[in-house]
Design a protein that fits this description.
By secondary structure, this protein is of the alpha+beta class. It is about 35% helix and about 25% strand. It is elongated, with a radius of gyration of 23 Å.
Length: about 110
């Protein structure tokens, strides 16, 4: 797993691969790098998140993904980054909105 640590992805020191698959019970679970899309709740909002290079244990026999702490941390980091980008986009859009019609009505006392 040194190649995973070289990519900056934290790896737990634990049992070596291959692991037994919880679905098909074969000893075929190994680290895989896959594109991954999901939705997660973040600060009370549902955020769609994409992780283009998620490193996660996957069964080579049945394809089952076995999420560990390292994979979950990668997803959480992507959720935080994408949520903050959306918040920044929203505030930028709010600042550039035209004034509302009500604020454009002339004051009758003038």
């Amino acid at each position: 797993m040194p190649e995973l640590q070289a990519q900056g992805i934290p790896q737990a020191t634990g049992r070596p691969f291959p692991w037994y698959c919880p679905r098909c019970r074969k000893r075929e679970v190994r680290p895989a790098t896959i594109p991954y899309r999901t939705e997660r709740l973040f600060e009370g909002r549902l955020v769609a998140v994409e992780v283009p290079n998620l490193v996660v244990p996957q069964c080579t026999n049945c394809g089952e993904l076995v999420f560990n702490y390292a994979a979950d941390e990668q997803i959480l980091n992507a959720v935080k980054a994408q949520a903050h980008n959306r918040i920044r986009e929203f505030t930028d859009t709010e600042e550039n909105k035209p004034m509302s019609r009500i604020s454009q009505i002339p004051d009758p006392e003038e």
